[in-house]
Amino acid sequence: MTDAPPPAVVFDHVSKSFGPKQVLTDVSLTVRAGEALCILGRSGTGKSVTLKLIISLLKPDTGKIRIDDDEVTQLNGAELSRIRRKMGLLFQDAALFDSLTLYENLALPLERLTHKTPAEIDFVVDRVLSQVGLAGDKSKMPSELSGGMRKRAGLARALVLEPRILLADEPSSGLDRITASEIDELLLGQKTEHSTTLIVVTHDVHGARRVADRVAVLDQGKLVAHGTVAEVEGSESDVARNLISG
Question: What is the mean pLDDT of residues 105-133?
Answer without folding.
Answer: 93
